[in-house]
Design the sequence.
């Protein structure tokens, strides 16, 4: 398998504060001279890197660098390998940047693994893994490429790295597929191949945007444009105004249709729009009484259950407010609070958002039920609500000298973009499933340096002379807690 070519280009973007290496990746497949070319588009957060501020490095013109290793595997064999370094100059500190790499791949299914490492901080790293399939190219039939979402589409190519220029047009990728308040124009690029093989004239390109609603897709916007070329490769670049779309998850679909609107080719991708201004206008309509409060008919017991569940997810000052409402048994305030809370979370479909949340709450109740509290009110239920399902769970009930304990691992936490996050729960009372959160390396969560001593509770086998500050136990046979916690 041949390597196609790779390009290094850096575009500086507004910085976003993240923890760990912040990177978004968007793979897009094209056809070039009857070969499949996988283009990997990257967006890096400049604030997620460690900068050499005293110029002690070997390269004085480099303040930061990311070492990137890309592996394509098939059946446990490495088919293609690439390693390179992206250097960040002093005048680019803390600014976000883009990069593009391209590879030729034969048809088949691959395991893609990309390792990112901060050259100035070996503990700052991230590993991206995904499965991808390269389809066989049939030279006798028409085809359509993947959609590449763009943050910039114009013809001002001066001082722009050539990697971001295609067909004489600047195309800066948008790998994270997120449109914020400052980006109200959706731009995309797609390629059509061998349209003449369809033997149909005229052909029309249909662009559709659908919003997510109650698990289904609802059409919000549709445009049409006539196909003016039937050459072997037809590039299509388009801008769409999305300033009137409220915050939501959307699907963009590009189709080639005939005069009877019969779909002949299509491709889709998903994006997220954040539009606080439009959301505020929708909320004003909701609060004005144009929508009924769907909590009005809810029974008091169900109301209490629902608001207790929200309290575990909300936390902070919201939790104090909810506790005050519960103590007063103020059911009208409960209805009003819940209605406003879910409108704030999803102004488009607040009731659907509430119903999805309560299905999760019911599942947590079944999984973590305790004789003393609801499942979502246990420590494990609370962590699940905050961070979602863990990547791995390891439970030990017979570790020598230890009370039962459980260690949850998250490869990555989206809440704060932290990697390799661990939570340690233990059951000191030995009563059923009464597991309590003991220790974590997550930011803003409980940290207990003596957590191993609490699990094993064997003072004569603690490491160190001061038992009160002991941070480890002797690593005897079957004592696994420290190894599990430290294992990546």
Sequence:
């Amino acid at each position: 398998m041949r390597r196609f070519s790779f390009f290094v280009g850096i575009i500086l973007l507004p910085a976003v504060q993240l923890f760990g290496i912040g990177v978004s990746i968007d793979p897009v497949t094209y056809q070039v001279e009857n070969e499949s070319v996988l283009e990997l588009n990257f967006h890096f957060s400049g604030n997620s890197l460690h900068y050499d501020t005293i110029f002690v490095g070997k390269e004085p013109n480099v303040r930061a660098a990311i070492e990137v290793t890309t592996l394509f595997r098939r059946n446990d064999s490495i088919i293609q390998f690439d390693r390179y370094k992206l250097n960040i100059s002093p005048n680019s500190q803390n600014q976000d940047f883009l990069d593009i790499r391209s590879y030729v791949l034969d048809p088949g299914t691959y395991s893609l693994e990309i390792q990112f490492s901060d050259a100035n901080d070996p503990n700052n790293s991230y590993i991206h893994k995904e499965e991808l399939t390269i389809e066989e190219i049939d030279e006798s039939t028409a085809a359509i490429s993947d959609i590449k979402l763009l943050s910039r589409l114009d013809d001002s190519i001066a001082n722009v790295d050539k990697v971001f220029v295609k067909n004489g047009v600047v195309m800066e990728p948008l790998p994270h597929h997120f449109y914020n308040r400052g980006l109200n124009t959706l731009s995309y690029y797609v390629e059509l191949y061998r349209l003449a093989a369809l033997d149909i004239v005229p052909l029309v390109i249909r662009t559709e945007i659908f919003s997510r609603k109650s698990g289904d897709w609802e059409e919000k916007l549709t445009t049409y444009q006539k196909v003016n070329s039937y050459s072997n490769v037809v590039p299509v670049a388009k801008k769409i105004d999305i300033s009137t779309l409220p915050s939501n998850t959307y699907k963009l679909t590009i189709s080639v249709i005939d005069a009877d609107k019969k779909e002949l080719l299509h491709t889709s991708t998903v994006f997220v729009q954040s539009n606080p201004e439009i959301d505020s206008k929708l909320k004003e309509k909701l609060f004005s009484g144009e929508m009924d409060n769907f909590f009005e008919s809810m029974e008091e017991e169900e109301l209490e259950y629902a608001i207790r569940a929200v309290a575990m997810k909300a936390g902070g000052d919201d939790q104090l407010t909810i506790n005050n409402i519960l103590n007063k048994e103020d059911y009208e305030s409960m209805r009003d609070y819940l209605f406003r809370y879910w409108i704030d979370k999803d102004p488009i479909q607040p009731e659907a958002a509430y119903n999805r949340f309560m299905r999760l709450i019911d599942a947590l109740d079944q999984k973590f039920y305790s004789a003393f509290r609801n499942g979502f009110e246990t420590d494990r239920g609370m962590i699940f609500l905050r961070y979602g399902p863990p990547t791995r769970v390891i439970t030990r009930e017979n570790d020598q000298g230890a009370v039962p304990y459980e260690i949850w691992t998250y490869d990555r936490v989206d809440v704060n973009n932290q990697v390799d996050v661990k939570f340690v729960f233990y059951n000191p009372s030995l009563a059923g499933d009464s597991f309590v959160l003991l220790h974590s390396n997550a930011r803003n969560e409980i940290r207990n340096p003596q957590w191993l001593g609490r699990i094993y509770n064997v003072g004569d086998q603690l490491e160190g002379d001061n038992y009160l500050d002991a941070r480890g136990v002797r690593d005897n046979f079957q004592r696994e807690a420290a190894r599990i916690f430290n294992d990546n």
Remarks:
- Confidence is low (pLDDT under 50) at residues 1-19, 459-471.
- The chain has four domains: 1-136, 138-274, 277-367, 386-486.
